[in-house]
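Hi there, hope your week has been kind to you so far. It would help a lot if you went through both lines with me. No rush at all, and the record is pasted right below:

***
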Amino acid sequence: MRGNLIKSLATVSAMTMASRVLGFVRQILIAGVIGAGGNPVADAFWAAFRLPNMFRRLFAEGAFHAAFIPLFQGKLVQDGSEEAKHFAVEVLSGLVFVLTLLTAIVEIAAPAFVYLIASGFESDAEKFALTTLYTRIMFPYLALMSMVGLASGILNSLGRFAASAGAPLALNVCLIIAIVVFADADTHVTGQAAAWGVFAGGVVQLFILFIGAARQGYLPRLRRPRMTPGVKRLLRLGAPGFISAGAIQINLIIGTNIASQEPGAVSWLMNADQLYQLPLAVIGIALGIVLLPSLSRRVKEGDEIGAARTLNRSVEVSALLCLPAAAAFIVMGAPICDALLRGVATDALGLFGGRSSAFTVEDVAKTGMALALFGWGLPAFIWHKVFSPAFFAREDTKTPMRYALIAIAVNTVVALALFPFFGFLAVAFSTSLAAWLQVSLLAVRLYRQGRFKPDDRLTGRFARIILASIGLAVFLHFSIQYTDNISEYLWNREWISVIAIAIAGLAVYGLLSLVLGAARPSDYKLLMTGGNGRQSRDRTEETEDPNS
């Protein structure tokens, strides 16, 4: 069981890692060519990108899967593949109709939607007009993502994770091509090209996922939309699921609106958001994608013991991977931003005419502070992806919705209260605080229901993982002081020094984990191989000591 989970996690994480590496390249190019706080194009692009990006995460990674996968799994297990195919067709037809209508409304009333996501831009006519233009170009991506979410939900339910995890590569590739081709143009032209790159990325993703579904014999075909019992049930689950699974994204939208009152703040927050998305995607989103079908099947089969064990191991694996990432962001947020968004960007742009990065020293400092605050919230962002599926697998979306509404309210009140004193940093702080509140409520509820009780292995290892992460933070804190000295041996490139320190920190953390007993060599081997077959699973279960 654990081998299967980690094998699937390794598949999704590997594809997600590749996508996020390309995402780093995309981010570096956008920051280097367009910049951040000093260019209205940057704020306009990131504000317009926030809405379609939110729906991408909700449909492809969150709320839609939370409602669709348990119902689709139920059709597969109880009624067979033909009924499951029929249900998928019903859902697709309804999605296409509703989202095509919504897209048409947004195209007509784009200024009103821009006001909803960035009301502070109203005082800057140029920025508001650019955001409106980019919104009209990018918003059809939302409808494309709904169909991508359906196809990926089908494939994930069938245990086919590679195509859905790899499809986001297309978005980054299209954006990179757009930025590179128009790198030497006026930034207004580059921003518009990037917006069209987002739209093109949605088209390519849809093509990839529909080909994958067709190969499994599940190519959905459009029919006249009807309000069937299956669709009604999906809506009953999906409406609260949209809020519960998308609380973090909704909080970010609220934060974007509040931050839009401060020039440059939207860009600083979005750049920090894109940086912490790497571990969030590789660990949390990947684990959530794998975990929901696994828990759903066990619940449908009545295997509550197996579901509880899967949840324990998921918390353990995610803690082992996310706590060191959080420590790195907290300790060296600004150096990471300087290395990637200035150092790497400057050298990369040197290939296109010797330009320097448009990302300034002020941008580095502000983005670094936001990244550190998001780092405190990173474990909560990830564990939300672990605990929420335990409710969704049982078709309970109302309980997480109530907690999500509480978190959204707290986020809004705290951000508005602190913004006059701390500016955009209040947004990053309130987002992390709300995430911790939401995940705490989810965990306590599951504990009281008897569906999540940390076993001896989890409690024993968790404390050791924290100690190893503290050791990593201490190492990074002292090492980063010697960046200039180290760079003398690394071609006088500070960004290479920062990356070298991060790699050394990873080795230190791995060693500390082994010495303290936070992990075993067999865990790393299983993570790297993905748990190769039954023999690997048997060997893992034999060596598991619940008290270790």
User: Anything to note?
Assistant: The chain has two domains: 2-453, 455-548.
